[in-house]
Amino acid sequence: MKIDIITIFPDYFAPLRLALVGKAIERGLLSTHVHDLRGWTQDVHRTVDDAPYGGGAGMVMRPEPWWAALTQLAPGGASAPRVVIPTPSGRRFDHPYAVDLAGAEHLIFCCGRYEGIDQRVIDRWATDEISLGDYVLSGGEVAVLAIVEAVARLLPGMVGNAASIADDSFATGRLEGPVYTRPDTFAGADVPAVLRSGDHAAIAAWRTEQSLARTRARRPDLLDPARPDPAGPDPAGSGPDSRQA
Predict the structure, then answer these.
(1) Catalytic residue at 243?
(2) Is 115 an active-site residue?
(3) What is the rounded CA–CA span in Å between residue 104 and residue 94?
(4) What is the Cα–Cα distance from 30 to 2, expressed in whole angstroms?
(5) Is 82 an active-site residue?
(6) Is 207 a catalytic residue?
(7) Mean pLDDT score, 160-167
(8) Band of the pLDDT at 46, cuts 50, 70, 90?
(9) pTM, 2 dp
(10) What angle do the packed helices 19-26 and 141-152 form, to 10 degrees?
């Protein structure tokens, strides 16, 4: 998979060279390219923002540098990438959405700032508008880091034990239950006896029971029969707001 990221703060993405994502880049499973949007400006001040039409607080990111960047980075035709813009009015990001994005060959992330990106850029280029949740960040960089990590760990060969991904929270439509490791006793608390029993059927049953109990207590909405199946993405669209979340 190829990932391009456009931002006015390229240094924000140093963490991409760390941990599993960094190892995937080193092994050639993933290529990432971070671009400074100011490289596509035409004035001496490298201006990327201007006052909003209609008045109001804040500034809006100008369309010209975004248009130039995406014209260069986003080829057309069958090889056209998915262009992702984080925004609080986008579709809520979840595990099925991450699975959907993991199937793409090329993703371009556009990190907006201020009050957002001129809507004409979004209307022309965006294939996906994504929200991490019901809050607003100062820019799209944090959201992009989260999305890239969630997507990258689903790529073939990314995680040493692929079975661990299948048991993750949300992968099954439930939260994962508690996990333990050595020592058997620590701080006065014991590892549940069933996990030390060697009875694989009993262990599987216990884990399912704990997963369901935790989900009922913390995220009962995940057990709603009307909720979309986690095996496939929700095709819902997104709204026009272009600030970041």
Answers:
(1) no
(2) yes
(3) 16
(4) 6
(5) no
(6) no
(7) 61
(8) very high
(9) 0.85
(10) 70
